[in-house]
Design goal:
By secondary structure, the chain is of the alpha/beta class. It folds into 4 domains: 2-167, Methylthiotransferase, N-terminal domain (Rossmann fold, 3-Layer(aba) Sandwich); 181-295, Transcription Regulator spoIIAA; 302-415, Transcription Regulator spoIIAA (2-Layer Sandwich), CATH 3.30.750.200; 420-475, Beta Barrel (OB fold (Dihydrolipoamide Acetyltransferase, E2P)). It contains 13 helices and 20 strands. It has a 7-stranded parallel sheet, with helices on both faces. α1 (11-36) crosses α5 (149-159), α8 (254-262) packs parallel to α9 and α11 packs parallel to α12. It is globular, with a radius of gyration of 23 Å. The structure holds 5'-deoxyadenosine and iron/sulfur cluster. The site of iron/sulfur cluster (SF4) has 10 residues, from α6.
Length: 476
C-alpha cells in the first residue's frame, strides 16, 4: 500500500506544521537516546548541482533538529537520504546501483529508513521502476515539497507503507527552514527556483518547474542573517540568475539585486551561478564591475561553439554573440576569470561543429570548465533528434577537447603565480592537517601551510606554484 500526495498550506503555516512534526520526532529520538545511550544517525548524499547540495543542507538541518546525528558511514545509518540528480544518465545509474546495495542493507537492518528525493523522482518512469523493482524504499518525494520531510517521515512511521509524495508544481517558497551549512563561512542562497529556457537537451525545466523568484526582501533578510552568523561569502543560486525578478509583483533585475546584496554589512564576497549568455545584460556587467564585493569570476556556460548546434539546443545566441559577450565582460573587468559548461556529442554535431567548440575554448580562455558527454534524456526534444553521434566518435572528441582545454587552464592559472592574493580560508586539507585550503576571488583553489585558526578569515597569500587545477601558496 502507498500513501500519496498532499497539498500545500500557505508557507508560514506549512513551516509551523513541519516544526511540530520535527518536535514530535525529536521527542521519540530523545527517548531512544535515554533508553539506549545512542543517537539515531542519518546519512545524507547530495548528487548533482549546487542547487541540490543546498537543498540537502536544508534536509540535513531538519534531521539535525529531529535529534539525528550525522554519519559519513552509510553502513551505520538509521535514516538514509539520497537527493538525486537526473541531468545525465550516469547520475541515475548511480542511484540504481545504490538501491541495489540498500536492498541487502535493509535485510540486515529492517528498521533503517530509506528516502529518495530530488530531480530524478519527478519522472514517472523512475517512480514506476521504484514501485516495481525497489520496494524496500520507504519515502519518495520530489523537488517541490522538500520541506515536508518531517511530515512524510511521520506518515511513514504511522502507516508502515511506502510514502510517495510527488508534486508537479508549487509556487510557495517555505522560508526559514532549519539548515546545516557545509561551510561555516560561506553559504548558498536560493534567489530563484526552476527554469523557463527549455534547452533541448535538458530535463531541468521538467523536473524543477517554471521560474519563480524569491522577493529581494526575503533574500536580503537571509543574507543579513547569514552575515550575523559569521558568513563572509554568499553564492546566489538559480538555474538562470540573469532572468531573476521578472515574475515578481514588483520586478527587480538581477543587477539591482546584486547592488542590494553588495550593501549587506559583514558580507565580503558575492558569487552567483548560473548565468545564461542570452540574458547577460550590460546593466549586469556594470553592476558586477561596480560592486566591490562581487567576485570577478563568472560562470558562463556556452555548451557548444557551433551556431548551428546552439540553434538546435535552443540556446538563443550565436558563437559570435557569445564571444562578443566575453569581450565586453573582459573589457569591463580585465582581471576577471571565466568558467563554463561544455557538451560534446549533441545530436548532429559534425567534426566542423566540434572544431568551433575548440575555437571558443581557445578564444575565451577558461580557468575551469565542466565538460560533459551529451546524455540522451527521455522527454527532451533532443532525444528525438536524428543523427545521434556514435559513442566512439564522442569519446574521441571529448579526449581531444581536454587536450586543448587543460593547457589553457594551466596557462590561465599560471597568471596568478607570483601574485599576492586574498584567500578565504575554508578548511584543513583532508590529506595533511598542516595544510589549509581556500579560494581566491577568482575561485582558484589554494593550498598553503598555516594554522587552522585562520579558517574563515580572508588572508593574503603569495601564489608560488601552479598545479593546473589548484595552486600552492605561501602565507605572507
Ligand atoms: N547531457 C549532457 N550534459 C547536460 N547538461 C544538461 N543536460 C545535459 C545532457 N542531457 C549540462 C549542461 C548544463 C550542466 C548543468 O549540465 O552543460 O549547463
Ligand atoms: Fe537546463 Fe538550459 Fe535551464 Fe540550464 S538554462 S537548467 S541548461 S534548460
Amino acid at each position: 500500500m502507498e500513501r500519496q500526495r498532499t497539498t500545500a498550506l500557505p508557507a508560514e503555516a506549512e513551516l509551523a506544521r513541519q516544526m511540530e512534526y520535527i518536535r514530535e520526532i525529536r521527542q521519540e529520538n530523545d527517548r531512544y537516546f535515554a533508553e539506549t545511550g545512542k543517537h539515531k544517525k542519518f546519512y545524507s548524499l547530495a548528487m548533482g548541482c549546487q542547487m541540490n547540495a543546498h537543498d540537502s543542507e536544508k534536509l540535513e538541518g531538519m534531521l539535525d533538529e529531529m535529534g539525528y546525528e550525522r554519519t559519513q558511514e552509510e553502513t551505520e545509518a538509521d535514516f538514509i537520504i539520497y537527493n538525486t540528480c537526473c541531468v545525465r544518465e550516469n547520475a541515475e545509474l548511480k542511484v540504481y546501483g545504490k538501491l541495489g546495495w540498500l536492498k541487502h542493507y535493509k535485510k540486515q537492518n529492517p528498521n533503517a529508513v530509506v528516502a529518495l528525493c530530488g530531480c530524478m523522482m519527478q519522472q514517472d518512469t523512475v517512480l514506476e521502476t521504484i514501485r516495481q523493482k525497489y520496494r524496500h524504499v520507504d519515502l519518495v518525494f520530489g523537488t517541490f515539497n522538500l520541506y515536508k520531510l518531517p511530515e512524510l517521515m511521520k506518515t511513514r512511521e504511522e502507516s508502515g507503507c511506502t510514502v510517495f509524495d510527488i508534486w508537479q508544481e508549487n509556487q510557495e517558497v517555505v522560508e526559514d527552514l532549519p539548515s546545516i551549512r557545509h561551510f561555516p563561512y560561506k553559504a548558498s542562497v536560493n534567489i530563484m527556483f526552476g527554469c523557463n529556457n527549455f534547452c533541448s537537451y535538458c530535463v531541468v525545466p521538467y523536473v524543477r518547474g517554471r521560474e519563480r523568484s524569491r522577493t529581494p526582501e526575503d533574500i536580503l533578510a537571509e543574507v543579513r542573517k547569514l552575515a550575523a552568523d559569521g558568513v563572509k561569502e554568499v553564492m546566489l543560486l538559480g538555474q538562470n540568475v540573469n532572468s531573476y525578478g521578472k515574475n515578481l509583483e514588483n520586478p527587480v533585475s538581477f543587477a539591482e539585486l546584486l547592488r542590494m546584496v553588495n550593501e549587506v554589512e559583514g558580507i565580503e564576497r558575492i558569487r552567483f551561478m548560473t548565468s545564461h549568455p542570452k540574458d547577460m545584460s550590460d546593466e549586469l556587467i556594470l553592476a558586477m564591475k561596480e560592486c566591490d564585493k562581487v567576485c570577478k569570476n563568472l560562470h558562463l556556460p556556452f555548451q557548444s561553439g557551433s551556431t548551428e548546434i546552439l540553434k538546435k539546443m535552443n540556446r538563443h545566441y550565436t558563437k559570435e554573440g557569445y564571444l562578443e559577450l566575453v569581450r565586453k565582460v573582459r573589457e569591463a573587468m580585465p582581471e576577471i576569470t571565466l568558467s563554463t559548461d561544455i557538451i560534446v556529442g549533441f545530436p548532429g554535431e559534425t567534426e566542423e561543429d566540434f572544431q568551433e567548440t575548440l575555437d571558443v575554448i581557445r578564444k575565451a580562455r577558461y580557468c575551469t570548465a565542466f565538460t560533459f558527454i551529451y546524455s540522451k534524456r527521455t522527454g527532451t526534444p533532443a532525444a528525438k533528434m536524428e543523427n545521434q553521434v556514435p559513442e566512439d566518435v564522442v569519446k574521441d572528441r571529448f579526449d581531444r577537447m581536454l587536450q586543448v582545454l587543460n593547457p589553457i587552464v594551466h596557462e590561465v592559472t599560471e597568471e596568478q603565480v607570483g601574485k599576492v592574493l586574498p584567500v578565504l580560508v575554508e578548511e584543513v586539507s583532508k590529506h595533511d592537517e598542516n595544510i589549509l585550503t581556500g579560494r581566491t576571488e577568482q575561485n582558484t583553489l589554494v593550498h598553503f601551510s598555516g594554522s587552522k585558526d585562520l579558517i574563515g578569515q580572508i588572508v593574503p597569500v603569495k601564489i608560488i606554484e601552479n598545479k593546473t587545477f589548484y595552486v600552492i601558496g605561501e602565507r605572507i
